[in-house]
Amino acid sequence: MRSHLFQHTEPEGEPGSFQLANKHMLKVDLTGSGGFFYAKQGSMVAYQGDVDFSYEGSGSMTKLFKKAFTGEGMSLMKVSGRGDVFLAQDADEVFVLSLENESVTVSGDNILAFESTLTWDINRVEGASMLTGGLFNTTFTGTGALAVTAYGTPVVLNVDEPTFVDMQSAVLWSTSLSSTVRKTAKMGALIGRGSGEAYQLGLSGQGFVVVQASEGHPPLKDD
Prior knowledge:
The protein is mainly β. The protein is 4% helix and 50% strand. It has 1 helix and 15 strands, in the order ββββαβββββββββββ.
């Protein structure tokens, strides 16, 4: 059988590594990963071998309460066993970050999977308040792989001067940055692409921020 389709075969990689099967799909080889990793619940699209998926919730009870209060965080599944696992989320683009004793702040909606060697917690963004709708994100710390998604090809902005990003468009940013929340001059001013532009995330210092080309997936319409 011949087809251009068969050019899209899975890549070969090192055991335990997070790598891209293509720009919309993550491949994880469980061998050498410590036997398990964590992924967003419902993100598995295929697997080969003897693999187990167990519901992990939000982690600890403290994180569970934080998620209930903030709306931030993700429902996790613990993936363990032997074999290869393929993950995706709504055909979003997937990117793998390799943290080396580092920290990064990520929007919970954009987290796809991460190695068990990373520690994580839900934190309120500095400068945010309940009046601005909260703005809580997840901070990852340590050494290991972290896979994130973006709805629309993102851009990485080098923050060396004050930078402002729509809250729904910010995928992740350096924990070294200081944050504020800025209100537009007029409540009715639509300076961006959606209805959430009354407040923007302000970042300053030295670091980077990843901005996706959207404010996330549009809400599903009722039939």
